[in-house]
Design a protein that fits this description.
Layout: H1 2-14, E1 21-24, E2 30-32, H2 46-52, H3 54-64, E3 70-74, E4 77-79, H4 81-87, E5 91-95, E6 99-101, H5 112-119, H6 124-133, E7 137-138, H7 139-145, E8 150-152, H8 157-169, H9 173-186, H10 191-206, H11 209-219
Parallel strand pairs: 1-3, 2-4, 3-5, 4-6, 5-8
Antiparallel strand pairs: 6-7
């Protein structure tokens, strides 16, 4: 699955016709329940297993550097690595029957590969409780923690996702890329470095045709016609 996700996100990144990515699970029971424990193949060496796990890193970095919005359609359980995958999306819409959690501790494992992603989405105490207890929680709790943006019924899920995606599609793709890139790149900078970087990126934004079009449309009281330039 990691290989398929890497291929799909790479295609979406490089395809100019793709404006928004919606990530969801098959069916109506699970978004992603994490790694299959049978993947701990006793015939595989620990070195081989270690090297294969780098695909998690490749995927999380690719998602953060995609340059396009990722909407998570959380249609069911988002557990373990699946929760890390959901947390790597920009905006999450969850069905009210979805559950969340990091159950790794219950089988003698720690959620190492998703911890860095979760730390950028959840407060320290709440995250430590999740990691240490390994308990599942419902969509309303995920909303309170900031893991999801909206909770709707299963019947309303597609409509809510389409609404958000439709609004995102109306925005300038070049400004979306510049702004999204700046958001993720500044998360690891110190305060002064972040401010200096953001000043340079604001200059980049104001050089685009879309910014000029947006300002002109505002004064002419009409909808802007963005061209992605």
């Amino acid at each position: 699955m990691l290989n398929d996700l890497l291929a799909a996100f790479t295609w979406a990144r490089d395809n100019g016709n793709v404006r928004i990515v919606v990530l969801t699970g098959a069916g109506d029971k699970a978004f992603c329940a994490g790694a299959d424990l049978s993947s701990f193949n006793p015939d595989q060496t620990e070195v081989e297993r270690h090297l294969e796990r780098h695909r998690f890193i490749d995927l999380f970095i690719l998602m953060s550097e995609l340059g396009k919005p990722i909407v998570g359609r959380i249609n069911g359980h988002a557990l373990a690595g699946g929760l890390g995958l959901a947390s790597s999306c920009d905006i999450n819409i969850a069905s009210d029957n979805a559950t969340f959690g990091t159950p790794e501790i219950n089988v003698g494992v720690w959620a190492m590969m998703i911890q860095a992603v979760l730390m950028r989405n959840v407060g320290r105490k709440a995250l430590l409780e999740m990691l240490m207890l390994g308990e599942r929680f419902d969509a309303q709790r995920a909303l309170e923690l900031g893991l999801v943006n909206r909770v709707v019924s299963q019947a309303e899920l597609d409509g809510a996702v389409d609404e958000v995606a439709g609004k995102l599609e109306q925005k300038s793709p070049i400004i979306m890329k510049l702004g999204r890139d700046a958001f993720y790149r500044t998360q690891d900078m110190d305060f002064r470095s972040a401010l200096e970087y953001l000043q340079s990126q604001l200059s980049m934004v104001t050089l685009t045709e879309d910014t000029k079009e947006g300002v002109m449309a505002f004064f002419q009281k009409r909808e802007p016609q963005f061209k992605g330039r």
